[in-house]
Amino acid sequence: MSGHVLALSGGVGGAKLAAGLAAVLPPGQLTIAVNTGDDFEHLGLTVCPDIDSVVYALAGLNDTVRGWGVVDESWRAMEMLGRLGEAQWFNLGDRDLAMHVARSWRLRAGESLSDVTARLTGALGIAHRVVPMSDAPVRTQVETAEGWLDFQHYFVREQCRPVARAIRFAGTPGAAPSPGLAEALARPDLAAVVLCPSNPFLSVDPILAVDGVREQLAALSVPFVAVSPLVGGKAIKGPLAKLLGELGRTCDNRAIATHYAGLVEHLIIDESDRAEAEGLRAMGLCATITGTVMCDAEDRERLARVALSAARYGTG
Fold it and tell me: Which of 51-55, 130-134, 140-144, 311-315 has the lowest mean pLDDT?
Protein backbone atom coordinates (compact mmCIF):
# COMPACT_ATOMS: atom_id res chain seq x y z
CA MET A 1 0.00 0.00 0.00
CA SER A 2 1.14 3.52 -0.70
CA GLY A 3 -0.47 6.94 -0.60
CA HIS A 4 -0.39 9.92 1.70
CA VAL A 5 0.29 9.80 5.43
CA LEU A 6 -0.99 12.40 7.90
CA ALA A 7 1.03 12.63 11.10
CA LEU A 8 -0.28 14.53 14.13
CA SER A 9 2.46 15.81 16.40
CA GLY A 10 3.18 17.76 19.51
CA GLY A 11 6.67 18.82 20.60
CA VAL A 12 9.81 16.92 21.55
CA GLY A 13 8.63 13.28 21.51
CA GLY A 14 6.31 13.82 18.58
CA ALA A 15 9.02 15.68 16.68
CA LYS A 16 11.33 12.67 16.93
CA LEU A 17 8.85 10.36 15.24
CA ALA A 18 7.93 13.08 12.73
CA ALA A 19 11.61 13.23 11.77
CA GLY A 20 11.67 9.45 11.45
CA LEU A 21 8.65 9.51 9.15
CA ALA A 22 10.27 12.23 7.05
CA ALA A 23 13.39 10.08 6.75
CA VAL A 24 11.49 7.10 5.31
CA LEU A 25 8.75 8.81 3.29
CA PRO A 26 9.23 11.12 0.28
CA PRO A 27 8.00 14.72 0.71
CA GLY A 28 4.90 14.21 -1.44
CA GLN A 29 3.63 11.41 0.79
CA LEU A 30 3.69 13.07 4.22
CA THR A 31 1.94 15.97 5.95
CA ILE A 32 2.89 16.73 9.55
CA ALA A 33 0.18 18.72 11.37
CA VAL A 34 1.46 20.27 14.58
CA ASN A 35 -0.16 21.45 17.79
CA THR A 36 -0.24 25.23 18.23
CA GLY A 37 -2.05 25.30 21.57
CA ASP A 38 1.34 25.92 23.23
CA ASP A 39 1.93 29.10 21.20
CA PHE A 40 2.15 32.39 23.06
CA GLU A 41 3.40 35.94 22.87
CA HIS A 42 6.65 36.59 24.75
CA LEU A 43 8.73 39.76 24.69
CA GLY A 44 6.64 40.89 21.74
CA LEU A 45 7.38 37.73 19.74
CA THR A 46 5.11 34.91 18.64
CA VAL A 47 6.65 31.70 19.95
CA CYS A 48 5.47 28.35 18.52
CA PRO A 49 7.31 25.73 20.60
CA ASP A 50 5.87 22.58 19.02
CA ILE A 51 6.21 23.77 15.44
CA ASP A 52 9.80 24.75 16.17
CA SER A 53 10.57 21.37 17.78
CA VAL A 54 9.35 19.62 14.63
CA VAL A 55 11.15 22.04 12.32
CA TYR A 56 14.44 21.79 14.21
CA ALA A 57 14.21 17.98 14.26
CA LEU A 58 13.58 17.76 10.51
CA ALA A 59 16.36 20.27 9.79
CA GLY A 60 18.84 18.44 12.05
CA LEU A 61 19.13 21.50 14.28
CA ASN A 62 17.53 20.19 17.46
CA ASP A 63 19.52 19.93 20.67
CA THR A 64 19.23 16.23 21.50
CA VAL A 65 21.08 16.61 24.81
CA ARG A 66 18.95 19.38 26.31
CA GLY A 67 15.87 17.96 24.61
CA TRP A 68 14.56 21.25 23.23
CA GLY A 69 15.75 24.23 21.22
CA VAL A 70 18.69 24.52 18.84
CA VAL A 71 22.02 22.73 19.08
CA ASP A 72 25.15 24.82 19.74
CA GLU A 73 23.00 27.55 21.25
CA SER A 74 24.21 30.71 22.98
CA TRP A 75 22.33 32.96 25.38
CA ARG A 76 23.78 36.44 25.01
CA ALA A 77 20.47 38.09 24.09
CA MET A 78 18.74 36.68 27.17
CA GLU A 79 21.62 37.82 29.36
CA MET A 80 21.26 41.36 28.06
CA LEU A 81 17.48 41.25 28.41
CA GLY A 82 17.95 40.26 32.04
CA ARG A 83 20.21 43.23 32.61
CA LEU A 84 17.49 45.38 31.10
CA GLY A 85 14.97 44.02 33.61
CA GLU A 86 12.98 41.78 31.29
CA ALA A 87 11.41 38.43 32.20
CA GLN A 88 13.79 35.47 32.41
CA TRP A 89 11.41 32.60 33.11
CA PHE A 90 11.21 31.54 29.45
CA ASN A 91 14.64 31.20 27.83
CA LEU A 92 15.13 32.02 24.17
CA GLY A 93 18.54 31.10 22.78
CA ASP A 94 20.17 33.39 20.24
CA ARG A 95 19.63 31.09 17.25
CA ASP A 96 16.13 30.21 18.42
CA LEU A 97 15.39 33.91 18.82
CA ALA A 98 16.02 34.41 15.12
CA MET A 99 13.18 32.00 14.32
CA HIS A 100 10.74 33.95 16.48
CA VAL A 101 11.81 37.29 15.04
CA ALA A 102 11.41 36.00 11.48
CA ARG A 103 7.99 34.55 12.28
CA SER A 104 6.69 37.54 14.20
CA TRP A 105 7.39 40.26 11.69
CA ARG A 106 5.96 38.15 8.85
CA LEU A 107 2.78 37.57 10.86
CA ARG A 108 2.52 41.28 11.55
CA ALA A 109 2.96 41.93 7.84
CA GLY A 110 -0.23 39.94 7.26
CA GLU A 111 1.02 36.47 6.40
CA SER A 112 -0.81 33.49 7.89
CA LEU A 113 0.91 31.07 10.26
CA SER A 114 0.70 28.47 7.49
CA ASP A 115 2.45 30.79 5.04
CA VAL A 116 5.13 31.71 7.55
CA THR A 117 5.75 28.08 8.51
CA ALA A 118 6.12 27.11 4.85
CA ARG A 119 8.55 30.00 4.34
CA LEU A 120 10.68 29.01 7.34
CA THR A 121 10.76 25.29 6.56
CA GLY A 122 11.72 26.04 2.97
CA ALA A 123 14.52 28.33 4.09
CA LEU A 124 15.88 25.52 6.28
CA GLY A 125 15.83 23.03 3.43
CA ILE A 126 12.86 21.00 4.67
CA ALA A 127 10.97 19.50 1.73
CA HIS A 128 8.24 17.74 3.76
CA ARG A 129 5.10 19.67 4.54
CA VAL A 130 4.85 20.91 8.13
CA VAL A 131 1.59 22.71 8.87
CA PRO A 132 0.00 24.25 11.96
CA MET A 133 -3.24 22.71 13.14
CA SER A 134 -4.95 26.09 12.59
CA ASP A 135 -4.08 29.58 11.48
CA ALA A 136 -6.43 30.93 14.15
CA PRO A 137 -5.03 31.35 17.67
CA VAL A 138 -5.87 28.44 19.99
CA ARG A 139 -4.43 28.61 23.48
CA THR A 140 -4.22 25.69 25.91
CA GLN A 141 -5.08 26.64 29.49
CA VAL A 142 -4.88 24.55 32.66
CA GLU A 143 -7.24 25.04 35.61
CA THR A 144 -5.49 25.01 38.98
CA ALA A 145 -6.25 26.16 42.52
CA GLU A 146 -4.95 29.57 41.38
CA GLY A 147 -7.45 29.67 38.51
CA TRP A 148 -6.81 29.19 34.81
CA LEU A 149 -3.14 29.36 33.79
CA ASP A 150 -1.95 29.84 30.22
CA PHE A 151 -0.03 26.76 29.17
CA GLN A 152 3.48 28.20 29.20
CA HIS A 153 2.90 29.73 32.63
CA TYR A 154 1.81 26.32 33.90
CA PHE A 155 4.45 24.32 32.03
CA VAL A 156 7.55 26.53 32.19
CA ARG A 157 7.09 29.24 34.79
CA GLU A 158 5.37 26.98 37.35
CA GLN A 159 7.19 23.80 36.21
CA CYS A 160 3.87 21.88 36.20
CA ARG A 161 3.73 22.06 40.00
CA PRO A 162 0.07 23.14 40.41
CA VAL A 163 -2.49 20.34 40.50
CA ALA A 164 -4.44 20.30 37.24
CA ARG A 165 -8.22 20.23 37.59
CA ALA A 166 -9.22 20.64 33.96
CA ILE A 167 -7.85 21.68 30.57
CA ARG A 168 -9.46 23.91 27.96
CA PHE A 169 -8.53 25.34 24.58
CA ALA A 170 -9.35 29.02 24.28
CA GLY A 171 -10.36 29.87 20.73
CA THR A 172 -12.35 26.67 20.20
CA PRO A 173 -14.86 26.25 18.83
CA GLY A 174 -14.27 28.82 16.13
CA ALA A 175 -10.79 27.82 14.94
CA ALA A 176 -10.85 26.26 11.47
CA PRO A 177 -8.25 23.71 10.39
CA SER A 178 -5.29 25.19 8.56
CA PRO A 179 -5.41 24.78 4.77
CA GLY A 180 -2.68 22.13 4.97
CA LEU A 181 -4.50 20.05 7.57
CA ALA A 182 -7.84 20.42 5.79
CA GLU A 183 -6.24 19.35 2.51
CA ALA A 184 -4.59 16.30 4.08
CA LEU A 185 -7.84 15.17 5.70
CA ALA A 186 -9.68 15.44 2.38
CA ARG A 187 -7.06 13.80 0.14
CA PRO A 188 -8.49 10.90 -1.86
CA ASP A 189 -5.12 9.14 -1.56
CA LEU A 190 -4.89 9.45 2.23
CA ALA A 191 -3.68 6.03 3.33
CA ALA A 192 -2.93 6.33 7.04
CA VAL A 193 -2.98 8.59 10.08
CA VAL A 194 -0.08 8.31 12.53
CA LEU A 195 -0.40 9.84 15.98
CA CYS A 196 3.08 10.65 17.27
CA PRO A 197 3.99 9.95 20.92
CA SER A 198 2.82 13.29 22.29
CA ASN A 199 0.89 14.18 25.45
CA PRO A 200 -2.77 13.32 24.76
CA PHE A 201 -4.15 16.15 26.91
CA LEU A 202 -1.73 18.95 26.12
CA SER A 203 -0.48 18.21 22.61
CA VAL A 204 -3.06 16.09 20.80
CA ASP A 205 -6.37 17.25 22.26
CA PRO A 206 -5.79 20.81 20.99
CA ILE A 207 -5.55 19.42 17.45
CA LEU A 208 -8.70 17.37 17.96
CA ALA A 209 -10.47 20.48 19.33
CA VAL A 210 -10.03 22.38 16.05
CA ASP A 211 -13.39 22.68 14.32
CA GLY A 212 -14.41 19.40 12.68
CA VAL A 213 -11.05 17.65 13.00
CA ARG A 214 -12.09 14.91 15.44
CA GLU A 215 -15.23 14.23 13.42
CA GLN A 216 -13.31 14.04 10.15
CA LEU A 217 -10.71 11.73 11.63
CA ALA A 218 -13.41 9.46 13.08
CA ALA A 219 -15.13 9.28 9.69
CA LEU A 220 -11.99 8.22 7.82
CA SER A 221 -11.77 4.64 6.62
CA VAL A 222 -7.95 4.51 6.73
CA PRO A 223 -5.81 2.96 9.48
CA PHE A 224 -5.20 5.20 12.49
CA VAL A 225 -2.10 4.20 14.45
CA ALA A 226 -0.82 5.81 17.65
CA VAL A 227 2.54 5.43 19.35
CA SER A 228 2.04 5.55 23.11
CA PRO A 229 3.85 8.32 24.96
CA LEU A 230 4.24 6.06 28.00
CA VAL A 231 7.24 3.83 28.64
CA GLY A 232 7.05 1.55 31.63
CA GLY A 233 4.09 3.49 33.00
CA LYS A 234 6.00 6.79 32.87
CA ALA A 235 6.41 9.66 30.44
CA ILE A 236 9.96 10.10 29.14
CA LYS A 237 9.52 13.86 29.30
CA GLY A 238 6.76 16.16 30.50
CA PRO A 239 3.88 15.96 32.98
CA LEU A 240 1.74 13.20 31.42
CA ALA A 241 1.98 10.78 34.36
CA LYS A 242 1.20 13.59 36.80
CA LEU A 243 -1.76 14.73 34.70
CA LEU A 244 -3.20 11.24 34.40
CA GLY A 245 -3.31 10.93 38.19
CA GLU A 246 -4.69 14.41 38.77
CA LEU A 247 -7.43 13.92 36.18
CA GLY A 248 -8.47 10.61 37.72
CA ARG A 249 -6.96 8.27 35.14
CA THR A 250 -4.68 5.29 35.55
CA CYS A 251 -1.12 5.76 34.35
CA ASP A 252 -1.06 2.99 31.77
CA ASN A 253 -1.73 2.32 28.12
CA ARG A 254 -5.33 1.40 28.79
CA ALA A 255 -5.90 5.03 29.78
CA ILE A 256 -4.23 6.17 26.55
CA ALA A 257 -6.41 3.82 24.50
CA THR A 258 -9.56 4.91 26.31
CA HIS A 259 -8.71 8.56 25.71
CA TYR A 260 -8.53 7.91 21.96
CA ALA A 261 -11.59 5.64 21.80
CA GLY A 262 -13.38 5.96 18.48
CA LEU A 263 -10.26 7.18 16.70
CA VAL A 264 -7.20 4.98 17.20
CA GLU A 265 -7.44 1.35 16.19
CA HIS A 266 -3.83 0.32 16.67
CA LEU A 267 -1.58 1.26 19.59
CA ILE A 268 2.18 0.75 19.56
CA ILE A 269 3.58 0.25 23.06
CA ASP A 270 7.04 -0.14 24.49
CA GLU A 271 8.58 -3.50 25.30
CA SER A 272 8.53 -2.58 29.00
CA ASP A 273 4.72 -2.51 28.81
CA ARG A 274 4.40 -5.92 27.16
CA ALA A 275 2.08 -7.14 29.93
CA GLU A 276 -0.55 -4.58 28.89
CA ALA A 277 -0.90 -5.85 25.32
CA GLU A 278 -3.57 -8.48 26.00
CA GLY A 279 -5.70 -5.99 27.87
CA LEU A 280 -5.52 -3.60 24.93
CA ARG A 281 -6.50 -6.38 22.55
CA ALA A 282 -9.44 -7.20 24.81
CA MET A 283 -10.58 -3.61 24.24
CA GLY A 284 -10.71 -4.34 20.51
CA LEU A 285 -7.41 -2.67 19.64
CA CYS A 286 -4.47 -4.04 17.73
CA ALA A 287 -1.31 -3.75 19.81
CA THR A 288 2.27 -3.84 18.59
CA ILE A 289 5.15 -4.25 21.04
CA THR A 290 8.48 -2.67 20.17
CA GLY A 291 11.10 -0.31 21.54
CA THR A 292 9.59 3.17 21.47
CA VAL A 293 12.45 5.15 23.04
CA MET A 294 14.13 7.18 20.28
CA CYS A 295 17.73 8.02 21.12
CA ASP A 296 19.09 8.56 17.62
CA ALA A 297 18.19 8.66 13.93
CA GLU A 298 18.26 4.88 13.65
CA ASP A 299 15.68 4.58 16.45
CA ARG A 300 13.47 7.23 14.86
CA GLU A 301 13.48 5.60 11.46
CA ARG A 302 12.94 2.11 12.86
CA LEU A 303 9.92 3.24 14.89
CA ALA A 304 8.55 5.13 11.89
CA ARG A 305 8.71 1.94 9.84
CA VAL A 306 6.99 -0.01 12.63
CA ALA A 307 4.19 2.58 12.72
CA LEU A 308 3.75 2.48 8.96
CA SER A 309 3.79 -1.31 8.97
CA ALA A 310 1.10 -1.28 11.65
CA ALA A 311 -0.91 0.93 9.30
CA ARG A 312 -0.31 -1.63 6.54
CA TYR A 313 1.63 1.04 4.67
CA GLY A 314 4.45 -0.08 2.35
CA THR A 315 7.59 2.10 2.31
CA GLY A 316 9.49 0.05 -0.24
Answer: 311-315
Which architecture, in CATH terms, is 4-310?
Answer: 3-Layer(aba) Sandwich (3.40)
0.85 exceeded by pTM: yes
Q: For residue range 150-193, what is the model confidence (pLDDT) as tens digits?
A: 999 999 999 999 999 999 999 999 999 999 999 999 999 999 99
Q: DSSP letters along the chain, please?
A: --SEEEEEE-SHHHHHHHHHHHHHS-GGGEEEEE--TT-EEETTEEE-HHHHHHHHHHHT-B-TTTSSSBTT---HHHHHHHHTT---SS---HHHHHHHHHHHHHHHTT--HHHHHHHHHHHTT--SEEEES-SS--EEEEEETTEEEEHHIIIIISTT-SPP-EEEEET-SS-PPPHHHHHHHH-TTEEEEEE-S--IIIIIHHHHHSTTHHHHHHH--S-EEEE-SEETTEESSSSHHHHHHHTT--SSHHHHHHHTTTT--EEEEEGGGGGGHHHHHHTT-EEEEE-----SHHHHHHHHHHHHHHTT----
Residue 286 pLDDT exceeds 50: yes
